[in-house]
Design a protein that fits this description.
Elements: E1 14-16, E2 19-21, E3 27-29, E4 36-37, H1 53-63, H2 69-80, E5 88-92, H3 98-109, E6 115-120, H4 123-132, E7 137-140, E8 153-159, H5 165-171, E9 172-183, H6 189-195, E10 212-226, H7 229-238, H8 241-244, H9 247-254, E11 259-272
Parallel strand pairs: 4-7, 5-6, 5-8, 6-7, 8-9
Antiparallel strand pairs: 1-2, 2-3, 9-11, 10-11
Helix pairs in contact: 1-7, 2-3
Bound molecules: S-adenosylmethionine and zinc ion.
Length: about 280
């Protein structure tokens, strides 16, 4: 049985040869690469929503080199501590699936039988993701209308993607783990120094969210030595700065063939609270 639900009638979907089907007779074709499109047309706000092809390829090439492996390891460690032999997980806004595939493989190597779904609104992202790990399920879907049942997953990852708290709370089991990855204050500081006259650090904040208890904020600090123009430009393309840097800054960066740059992440670890008996949560 799939982790996905029918986006039209919310019944469980079964994956068969070439398509996902619900008992109500709705059917959704599996694309050649292995993902399924579960975003109804009325939720599609542009012809090609989400990250475009260039951005996806830049991220794939950069992450495949292992530059963010310390972050992947921190995420995997959190999901490895989940109870049970067959945890169900969701990577919401999974992009090209670097973390989705990495988590699946880490849990399998630890002798578990994970089920993992990755969702993203960009079909370009899922084309790459579905090729990365055939044993994971991938669907084009919005994080704000997830095609998953209530309380069905043990863990949700949201890494640099839209924060759809209500949906994350809905799909998680009580006691389930929610990992929210954001940039730390000095993330990519040396790149920002080249791009901007006056760079500023990212704000560090701790936000209690309704229905969740804070377990920890895990810092992941590192430094990268990028030794090719391609790697520097791929990293730049992955960032929001790519869209808002003045031309002079982008040209200064384009001239570089080498860059040492700090990385800094914060993994906010939450537990979904159990609803109190009689309380209106
Ligand atoms: C910065 S990328 C992060 C991708 C991946 N989590 C990672 O860290 O490599 C943000 C992703 O969110 C996706 N996205 C944007 N809006 C979305 C939405 N409403 N629902 C689901 N995904 C969305 C984009 O297509 C993109 O792949
Ligand atoms: Zn249906």
């Amino acid at each position: 049985m799939s982790l996905f639900r029918c986006p039209l009638c919310a019944a469980p979907l079964e994956r068969g040869a070439g398509a996902y089907r619900c008992p109500g007779g709705h059917s959704f074709d599996v694309a050649r690469e292995g993902y399924v499109h579960l975003l109804p047309p009325n939720q599609k706000h542009s012809a090609l929503p989400g990250d475009g092809r260039d951005m996806v390829l830049a991220r794939r090439d950069f992450l495949s080199k292992g530059y963010y492996e310390p972050l992947l390891k921190t995420i995997c460690f959190q999901f490895l501590t989940l109870p049970g032999e067959a945890p169900a997980l969701l990577d919401a806004g999974c992009g090209e699936g670097y973390y989705t595939a990495g988590i699946f493989q880490a849990l399998r190597s630890a002798g578990k039988r994970p089920r993992i779904a990755g969702t993203d609104i960009s079909k370009f992202a899922l084309r790459t993701a579905a090729r990365r790990e055939r044993a994971a399920e991938f669907a084009v879907a919005s994080s704000y209308r997830l095609p998953l049942g209530d309380g069905g997953v043990d863990g949700v990852l949201n890494c640099f993607s839209p924060l759809a708290l209500e949906e994350f709370r809905r799909v998680l089991k009580p006691g389930g783990t929610f990992l929210y990855v954001v940039p730390g204050p000095d993330h990519l500081w040396e790149m920002k120094e080249i791009l901007y006259e006056r760079p500023y650090p990212n704000e560090e904040k701790e936000t209690p969210y309704e229905g969740f208890a804070y377990r920890a904020i895990l810092p992941v600090e590192g430094a990268l030595r990028l030794e090719s123009r391609a790697d520097i430009q791929n990293l730049f393309r992955m960032t929001p700065y790519f869209w808002k840097t003045p031309r002079a800054g982008a040209e200064r960066l384009a001239a570089l063939e080498r860059l040492e740059v700090r990385t800094s992440f914060r993994v906010h670890v939450f537990e979904k609270l159990c609803a109190l008996k009689g309380a209106d949560l």
